[in-house]
Amino acid sequence: MMIPYGRQSVSQSDIDAVVDVLKSDFLAQGDVVPKFEQALCGYTKASHGIAVNSGTSALHIACLSLGLQQGDYLWTSSITFVASANCGRYCGAEIDFIDIDPDSWNIDVAQLKSKLEHARKSHKLPKILVVVHFAGLPADLKEIHQLSSEYGFHIIEDASHALGAEYLQGKVGNCQYSEITVFSFHPVKIITTGEGGMALTNDQKLANTMRLLSNHGITREVEQMPEKPEGPWCYQQIMLGFNYRMSEIHAALGLSQLARVETFLQRRRHIAQAYNAALAVLPLQTPWVCEDRLSSYHLYTIRLNCNNNPDLRNAAYQQLKDKGIGVQIHYIPVSHHHYYQQLGINTESFPEAEKYYAETLTLPCYPGLSDADQQYVVATLTDLLS
Prior knowledge:
The chain has helices at about 10-20, 30-45, 55-65, 85-90, 110-120, 140-150, 205-215, 250-260, 260-280, 310-320, 340, 350-360, 370-385, and strands at about 50, 75, 95-100, 130, 155-160, 165, 170, 180-185, 195-200, 220, 235, 285, 295, 300-305, 360-365. The protein is an alpha/beta fold. Helix 9 (about 260-280) packs parallel to helix 13 (about 370-385). Strand 2, helix 4 and strand 3 (about 95-100) form a beta-alpha-beta unit. It is built from 13 helices and 15 strands. The longest helix has 19 residues, at about 260-280. The mean pLDDT is about 95. It has two domains: about 10-260, Type I PLP-dependent aspartate aminotransferase-like (Major domain) (Aspartate Aminotransferase, domain 2, 3-Layer(aba) Sandwich); about 260-385, Aspartate Aminotransferase, domain 1 (Alpha-Beta Complex), CATH 3.90.1150.
């Protein structure tokens, strides 16, 4: 049996919560979605939450609410899932990437600053920077926020990996250093709704716009209607939106899972600490630990020392798979994908991302991973690298 790199943890209380909704009068547009939104806002200390059907949908409405359109530029990390960039393309924007820091594997702030200075001279500054908290480790938000003030771009935090992570003693999602933070609730994320996402913000106007965008551009709020309603049944479409709503079923699962988020995080951090200690003697780099931030460890990624053996990572991947360990690669640089190469993105512009991609492996890390299975992973990797 394969040990997966990630897996959802579903309890009887989760099942009961979903069954309760299935037996209720409302499977959609009831009161469970607002309760989930309020609960996540309470957890993160954000003011407003808009639950949607995926993290990708949340990124899309975040970009649209900030006015991203054709002729604009969106920048993001060179190491991320494609959705962090695709959200800009949905709006017609041009995409560019920032190379990663060799220690944190997040956006390299020095590279960002240099690129911004060049972009200012060529009048190609980004309208939006999507800051990815890779693997659950918060990026250098305070420094990036200072740059946003100087260069005039908006910040969206892609916190798909980082629910429960902490930065400068605050929960990721409080939007202290960004306009909008986006979470994903895919099955392998910190909590799951099956599929789902949420956009958080402290800005009432952005919240109103994102809620409209997630529901066909339709409002039932009289104060938002440009025309006098014909009666109490009336609703009006006031912009072009999408059917991105989260169902009551998904929200019930998310609300139940959120009640156990700290238990999930505690287990993930325990697993990460055990890996850090056990792998310290091996020729590899473990995830960066920093005093001013705390990772949620959505992923536990390592970098192998491949200087004298460029085939080591690929061989290690296959040998671990053959031993029943479901390692994974996070991520293929977005610039490698055919779609972005067709847009003229040059992979050679991101050397640290290229090096990272050639050396990285993701080891199993999820709340249900047993100590015995983790010890097997460590022993197998140790034998392989010895």
